Structure formats: structure tokens, C-alpha cells
Amino acid sequence: MTRIKCCGMTRVEDAVLAAELGADAIGIVLTARSKRQVSLLQASAIVAALPPFVTTVALCMDDEASFVQDVIDTVRPSLLQFHGEESDEWCAQFGHPYLKAIAMGAGAAALYQLRDHPHAAGLLLDGHGLGEAGGSGKAFDWSLMPHGMKQPLILAGGLTSANVAAAIRIARPWAVDVSSGIESAPGVKDRVKVREFIAAVRGAE
Ligand SMILES: O=C(O)c1ccccc1N[C@@H]1O[C@H](COP(=O)(O)O)[C@@H](O)[C@H]1O
Q1: 126 is catalytic
Q2: Which of 107, 150, 185, 196 to pair with 158, CA 20 to 30 A apart?
Q3: Residue 136 pLDDT > 90, yes or no?
């Protein structure tokens, strides 16, 4: 079964709806690098509203360590997601499980980064370039998705209900991650698009 993470939630009702429709994980963006940034208070409200067995993921990007610690202490997410140029040692300092995003914008030349994060609970391959923010709807060549790695691999970048079945067939990821593909505006999720995305993932299996 391909797990589904719906990211970039800014409203409690969108997060609850996505969980009810079958999302396995809900992502909340804390970094100021994003147009979907929420406050610690908003993020805590989203986490508190979710039912048990839904994983919560708090996304940071090249933020100060003290800010990340505040996120852990206040929001209490299941996982962190580091989306910038953070090193393995830096990400591991918090003793909190995390995903590390890999910028795949450079194509095959970007794959070297997969070896650099042995402490990550999973690696999230996104379509943007190194140093750029995610949530941009940029896809990468799904045939570059590696196989046989120890860490679970999460496919992200430009996924929609129209392309996610093909993406799963080609990349065979452990999970898919979507943000702009289920939105009507940045940070505002569209009920129909969320439903169609989850149905498309389930239909691909
Ligand atoms: O969503 C954002 O605004 C964001 C900002 C900075 C870093 C990462 C961000 N989002 C991540 O990118 C993926 C893919 O987004 P999309 O589906 O291409 O729009 C998203 O799920 C987040 O993990």
C-alpha cells in the first residue's frame, strides 16, 4: 500500500478532512520560506484536531536550531521534515525522528545526496532545485527513483490526481506527498481534489 502525505495544511478543517478521506500523514509548514507558513499556535491546533494513527509532519527549511526545538516542544509532531541544506548531523541533533528532503531538480546528478542522510527515518525526493523551496508543483523524472534502499522513499513534486497513478507505477515509492496538487489557492485545500488524489493513489495499487 502506498502511504499518502497531504502537506501544507493551514486550516484545521482541511487537515481533518484529509485524514477522514484516508491520508496517512498531514504536513504543516513552519518555515518562513513558505507561502503556507503557519504559526506554532496554528500548527498545534491542527495537530490537536487529528485522530490517532495519523502521522503529523512539521516542515522546517534551514531554520535556526532554537526554532526547530520550539516546534518540537510546542507542536509535538510525530516527525520533522527538513527541506533545506541541513546536514545529517544537524538534523539528528534534536533526537526527534525526521524526513530529509532531497532536491531532485538537477536530475540524476542530484542522486549523490541520498547517501548523505543515514539518520533520516525516510528520504523525500522533491522536484525543485537545490536551495529552492518546495510546494512549487515541480515534478522530476520519476524513473530516477532508486530501488533497494534501506530508508523508505517518499515521492513529491508536482503530483496531482491526474498523474499520481503513473508516478506510482514508474517510481514505486513507499509513499507519495502532495501539496499544490490538492489546492484551490496556496494553503487552501480543495475537498474534491483531495478526494480524487486519494482515490487515484488507491486505484493505482
Ligand atoms: O509547501 C511549501 O510551501 C513548502 C515550502 C518550503 C519547502 C517545502 C514545501 N513543501 C514541500 O514540497 C512538497 C511538494 O509540493 P507540491 O506537491 O509540488 O506542491 C510538499 O508536499 C512539501 O513536502
Answers
A1: yes
A2: 150
A3: no
Complex ipTM above 0.90? yes
Is the CB of residue 153 below 6 angstroms from any atom belonging to ligand 1?
no
pTM of the model: 0.97
Domains of the chain in start order, with CATH, are 3-204 (3.20.20.70)
- Return d(Cα 124, Cα 104) in angstroms, integer: 10
80 CB within 6 A, ligand 1: no
Read off the DSSP letter of residue 121: S
Q: For a substitution probing ligand 1, which of 3, 5, 7, 128 has the most ligand atoms within 8 Å of its CB?
A: 7
Q: Which three cell numbers stand for residue 94?
A: 534534536
Question: CA-to-CA distance for 39 and 78, rounded, in angstroms?
Answer: 17
Q: What's at 11, amino acid-wise? A: R
- End-to-end Cα, the chain, rounded Å: 7
Which three three-digit cell numbers place residue 170?
514508474
Q: How does pLDDT run across 22-53, given as a tens digit for each residue?
A: 999 999 999 999 999 999 999 999 999 999 99
- Residue 38 main-chain phi, psi, to 5 deg: -120, 160
| pLDDT averaged over every residue in the chain | 97
Closest CA to 55 of 93, 9, 90: 9
Kindly state if the Cβ of 157 falls inside 6 Å of ligand 1.
yes
